[in-house]
Amino acid sequence: MNIHTPDNRAFQPTKALLCLVAATLFWILNALNKQGYTMNVDYPIQFVYNDSLFIPTSPLPRTVRVNVSSDGWGLLRHSWLPFRIDPVNYVVRDPLQASAINTSSITAALTEHTKKLRVNYVLTDRLDLTFDRRMTKTIQLVADSLHINLAPRFAVTSVINLTPHTIQIDGPTSLVRGLPDSILVRIPRKRITENYDEELPLNQLRHPLLHASADRVAVSFEVGELLSPLPAPSPPPAPVKKSVPVTKPAPARKK
Q1: Residue 129 has what DSSP assignment?
Q2: Which of 82-86, 115-119, 142-146 comes out lowest in average pLDDT?
């Protein structure tokens, strides 16, 4: 009587797959431990300067692209987890004279900042910097009372209130100096027949480099209906012509 026993030498795909995964994992771990890998990374950068006296007039770069060397683990950490990297500080000592980032200085700062990476060089040849002195100016807000559109037989019967009545504008000196000392606030509503109380945007001062203490102003005033029409303004009196006396010329003296 023949009894069939299972053949242990038959192909078992599960064990083969486990062996393949183990071999791949071992190869990856061995490769990550090796030195000499290079990679281009965008490293976060933070500019340090006296922001109470100076203001950038062009956007400062948030990252700088550099070529680095390390083992596989170091590059893997910086490429997969960039949000955990603290930015490197770049000190701008004289903002008005600085026109570009010093690549040698940023390379030295990155070398000091990074522990497991070797910074080889900065890929960008030139990173421009432009600064201006910071200036603050107070601007008066004035209601444009001459152009309030009221319905017939209605008139403004109170003081026009503005809140705030002044705003502070902060920004580069080259821009702030050109701003006017006062700004007219126009009332956009047409044919007003009731008391007015609204917040209006201050669109005249919107600029990416300017910061205003307020971007809206509250305007309020009272409106009343006239029971009788306003008297027509009387014409100015006609100028009085002064008569010039006519004199007869004196007779010439006889010699």
Answers
A1: -
A2: 82-86
Average pLDDT in the chain: 79
| CATH number (domain holding residue 102) | 2.170.120
Strand extents, DSSP E, the chain: 37-48, 54-56, 63-70, 88-91, 118-122, 131-143, 154-156, 161-163, 166-172, 182-185, 196-201, 211-212, 216-221, 223-225
Smallest CA-to-CA distance from 145 within 192, 180, 178, 205 is with 192
Look at residue 14 and tell me if it is in a domain: no
Q: Kindly give the residue spans of alpha helices, DSSP state H, lying in 33-143.
A: 72-80, 103-113
pLDDT of residue 247: 43
Q: Is the pLDDT of residue 178 over 70?
A: yes
What are the tokens at 203? 């669109």
Strand partners of residue 225: 154
Task: Output the domain CATH number for residue 162.
Answer: 2.170.120.40
pLDDT of residue 214: 93
For the chain, how many structural domains are there in total?
A: 2
Residues 25-34: contacts with CB under 8 Å, at least 24 apart: 31/72, 32/71, 32/72, 32/73, 32/76, 33/71, 33/72, 33/73, 34/71, 34/72
Residues 6+ apart with CB under 8 A from 46: 87, 88, 89, 90
Q: Which amino acid is at 50?
A: N
- For residue 189, what are the domain limits? 134-225
What one-character DSSP code corresponds to residue 154? E
- How far apart (Å, rounded) are the C-alpha atoms in residues 122 and 126? 9
d(CA 154, CA 168): 35
